[in-house]
Amino acid sequence: MKAAVIVYPGANCDRDLAEALRAAGAQVSMIWHKDTQLPEGLDLVGL
């Protein structure tokens, strides 16, 4: 599974979410909230 976690100012659980997704076997990309494109083939996007 490929996942992305959106990172934005004031977020305090983005790293926790990424770690949980990795523990579940996902390949995780951290995406800054101002980025205009997401990686291809994502199965999940977390905020």
Domain tally? 1
Number of strands: 3
**Spatial sequence of strands, sheet with the most strands:** 2-1-3
The rough form would be described as flat
Question: How many strands, which pairing sense, and closed or not: the largest β-sheet?
Answer: 3 strands, parallel
Q: How many helices does DSSP assign?
A: 1
**Overall pLDDT:** 97
Q: Strand pairing plus helix content: what structural class?
A: alpha/beta
Strand content: 25-35%
Helix content: 10-25%
Distance between the termini: 17 Å
Identify low-pLDDT runs.
none
H-E string: EHEE
Radius of gyration: 10 Å
Question: Which characteristics define this entry?
Answer:
47 residues; alpha/beta
What does this structure look like?
The chain has 47 residues and is of the alpha/beta class. It has one domain. It has 1 helix and 3 strands. A 3-stranded parallel β-sheet has the order 2-1-3, with helices on one face. The longest helix is centred in the middle third of the chain and has 10 residues.
Write the layout of secondary structure elements.
Layout: E1 2-7, H1 14-23, E2 27-32, E3 44-46
Parallel strand pairs: 1-2, 1-3
Question: In summary, what is this structure?
Answer:
By secondary structure, this protein is an alpha/beta fold. It has one helix and three strands. The chain has a three-stranded parallel sheet, covered by helices on one side.
